[in-house]
Specification:
Blueprint lengths: L2 H19 L8 H10 L6 H13 L4 E4 L5 E4 L6 H13 L5 H12 L4 H4 L18 H15 L1 E10 L5 E3 L6 E11 L2 E8 L4 E6 L3 E10 L4 H4 L3 H7 L7 E10 L3 H8 L5 E4 L3 E10 L1 H9 L4 E5 L1 H21 L2
Antiparallel strand pairs: 1-2, 3-4, 3-5, 3-8, 5-6, 6-7, 9-11, 9-12, 10-11
Helix pairs in contact: 1-3, 4-5
Length: about 325
């Protein structure tokens, strides 16, 4: 290698060595760096290594030198700290919508953001109770397309399906394509949902991204409508229990004081809790009343009572009576 071109590559090689192998626990001794450069046909002396490290510092690389028995060079502050990378790895491993193959690929890329020694700490298993990972890798790319459509202000089209008992796809609307102006994406209950204005029914609706097929970003401009312009993703997700549709209403709940944290987790810190005697409080919130809403109430047992609106209370009683009758009938 010509001397001039070798010297130009010298800094790049040193930078790569430091990023890949240099951390505080395993610093790279100066002789090791000199030997690695020699294998690339580049001669270097101890003094020149010190000058090179200073240049790398000037260009923003946090090069440190550890003195003592295990003296050597390493990278101090990296773009991502190890605890941050662990958090990202945990999120990828536990995410339901990312396939196992894609999870492994993403984690391998995250490992490249730290040294080889520290990367071994990222090769761990996060326990999530009976976690189901999707086999549908198209979800990963569909999400990217939806972000592109939202940023570009374009409508999207797709087919939408359910599964039958044979685990076969059954397309809704007889396989006709949906045309939707996307307002935003919600990650709820381990699934991604597209919320947008459905051009056919002229309503704001949401769709599970993993149940879409052949999603395409069109050249059509996103429909301008007040529903989308005034749309609040956080409020929408908060009102829809498990993202099921139903009738939106202002519901009032009487709750035992022990359920304060449950209600704050569900409806947020801004809700108003009104004391109702020594053991209870009242809570009034906007919610979409759906079968999943009633299921949530049922799971809380006697600790919460639905008191308004009247039609929801009657429906709640009817469902409780029906469940009791079904249980009694199943035992005979």
């Amino acid at each position: 290698m010509p001397k001039q071109s070798g010297q130009k590559a010298k800094l790049l090689i040193l930078r790569q060595l430091l990023l890949e192998r240099g951390d505080e626990d395993q610093p790279i001794p100066t002789p090791v760096l000199i030997e690695a450069l020699a294998r690339q046909g580049i001669s270097a002396e101890r003094k020149s290594i010190y000058r090179d490290m200073e240049i790398l510092r000037e260009f923003g690389l946090d090069v440190q030198f550890k003195k003592g028995k295990d003296a050597g060079w390493f990278i101090g502050q990296r773009e991502f700290e190890l605890p941050e990378l662990k958090l990202l790895v945990d999120a990828v491993q536990s995410s339901r919508f990312i396939s196992r193959r894609k999870s492994d690929a993403l984690i391998h890329k995250l490992e490249g953001l730290t040294s080889q020694g520290l990367a071994r700490q990222l090769q761990r298993q996060v326990y999530v109770d009976r976690r189901v990972k999707t086999d549908n890798e198209s979800v990963y790319y569909a999400i990217d397309k939806l972000h592109t459509a939202i940023t570009a202000g374009r409508a999207v089209t797709f087919q939408y399906f359910d599964y039958n008992v044979k685990k076969e796809k059954v397309f809704r609307r007889e396989g006709k394509r949906y045309t939707v102006s996307p307002c935003g994406l919600i990650w709820s209950d381990e699934n991604y949902y597209l919320v947008g204005w459905d051009h056919a029914v002229k309503e704001l609706r949401h769709y599970r991204v993993d149940k879409t097929a052949e999603l395409t970003v069109t050249g059509l401009p996103r429909t301008s409508n007040r529903a989308c312009e005034t749309f609040d993703l956080a409020q929408y997700g908060q009102k829809h229990f498990h993202m099921f549709s139903g009738k939106e209403a202002q519901v009032r709940l009487q709750c035992e004081n022990a359920l304060v944290n449950v209600m704050l987790d569900r409806f947020g810190q801004d809700v108003i809790l009104i004391p109702d005697g020594p053991d209870h409080f009242l809570l009034t919130v906007e919610a979409v009343v759906s079968p999943q809403f009633y299921g949530w109430l049922f799971g809380l047992g006697s600790g919460v009572v639905l008191t308004a609106p009247g039609w929801a209370v009657e429906e709640w009683r009817r469902r409780l009576t029906g469940a009791l009758e079904a249980a009694e009938g199943g035992g005979t």
